[in-house]
């Protein structure tokens, strides 16, 4: 028997006389036409989204206003008032209240800011003297004594101009959102009918449940933010006034606005308030710091769950992740919209019955599915031959009654 040779054979060298050449492998990449079309559509969609982002933010703002003021209008309707009259009353009360708040706070706020600017050299010297007492902050005290405001103002002139342009754009978009919300509330039935007309009737109940839950999420979030911000501003004003720190209204307004950012605003709130207390001694500074820290704990652990209730239903870890993601992608606006967007995504996953990896069907899921099927059959029976505008009102009514049953505590 011959011994087998396992050595790799040498490649065949080209033979010019015979025309024999080494074989070459050819790799061919073929992309399906549908894949190219999908990629182009995705890129075009992302480009349109970026270009229309301000318009989308105006739409989101309008929806949040509708979700906030909608329950008040419904409350007036239930007491026999016409819808248009109720909308006029709600918007009038909101406008008058906003004007009164500005009239009562803006002049005093301007006076306190002017007083704070006039007192700045004295406050800066007192703060520098306080830093000079400790070896670790001596250099900081010297830096504060030699601050050059002229160079700072010159270098920040362009930034201030850009900032004011952003403020003007934000105000314009805000008014646009308000007027769009007004039109959406006045034309609610026609808009809702148009939306239900393009959706198959077998999915109307599920669509109405999504709309009801979104209204609850948005309205609960905005009302909760308004209440917690007002409470934070009032607490800062009372605390600083009791400690004898001037210009308490300025810090209270800033603290109330900063408190809009959950879990982040407390750091923006405590910084200016503690800095304002530093020139008045270590005792006052410690009291202000500890009281604000204690109030933050009270707000996050007692007030927020009490005010928000079951509107968002988000765990603490997801809240923090949503805030970081929103702030990273879209800055302050992303942080403001992070929680309602996260709550809406979870609600859509639940309502659309999206099966997540690792999730198993629970005992209540089958009962919920049977209730959904029964409601869909009942809705189809009640709205047979009915136009989409009237059918949508019935679907929303049925979903609202079911939500009330689900929210009613079990005795």
How many strand segments? 0
Overall mean confidence score, pLDDT: 77
Number of helices: 15
Find the structural class using helix and strand composition.
mainly alpha
The radius of gyration computed from the alpha-carbon positions, rounded to a whole number of angstroms, is: 31 Å
Compressed to H and E, one letter per element, the order equals HHHHHHHHHHHHHHH
Shape estimate: globular
**Largest sheet, strands/sense/barrel:** none
The percent of residues in helical segments reads over 70%
Proportion of β residues? Answer: under 5%
Alpha-carbon distance between the termini?
Answer: 92 Å
Taken together, the total number of domains comes to 2
Low-confidence stretches: 17-21
If you had to describe this structure to a student in words, what would you say it looks like?
By secondary structure, the protein is an all-alpha fold. It folds into 2 domains: 53-186, no CATH class; 189-355 and 363-406, no CATH class. It is 77% helix and 0% strand. The protein contains 15 helices and no strands. It has helices spanning 33-51, 53-78, 83-118, 120-132, 138-145, 149-155, 157-186, 188-197, 204-242, 248-258, 265-277, 282-308, 316-351, 363-382, 388-407. Helix 9 packs antiparallel against helix 10 and helix 10 runs antiparallel to helix 11 (265-277). It starts with 32 loop residues before the first helix and ends with a helix.
